[in-house]
Amino acid sequence: MKQFYDNAFVQTGKYVPPNSDREGNTLADLAPKMASEDYHGSQNESKGIIGILEVLLSDFDRTTKKTTQDDKDSQEAFETFEKDTNEDVDKKEKRIENAEGEKAEAEASILEQEQELGDAKVLLESGLQKLESLEAMCVKGEETFEERKQKRLEEIEALKQALTILEEWQA
Predict the structure, then answer these.
(1) pTM for this structure?
(2) Contact, 26 vs 17, CB < 8 A?
């Protein structure tokens, strides 16, 4: 657009004002200079549509650069977030797998311990029955020391009497 408008306002041939002399000077050109400074006109206003278009073009360039950079930053942030999230999900899935394995092992151990408990109860019951039968033979039928001593003394006395009877019968 700049090329189009740059050339649109430029005159290609030399302009010759009306009522000018051979060199193209008018009365105003030949008049004496009153001010010591050169008049440059309103150069800021002379930019006109070209200036506006240049401002628009720079705004578009700046906006394009900013949005491109923002898009790049957002993409990087998304990729970082996605990577972190996927790593976190993987860690948690592994933790779940490990926990499920530990749970299965614990359940198997519980079943094994329950089986062993059942076996131990059966053994305990049979042991208690055996103990009761032995207790009846050993402990409940047993006499005290004094009672045994007394019976032994009575047995010795009976044997002495039997010996005297045998000695008398042989004599």
Answers:
(1) 0.38
(2) yes
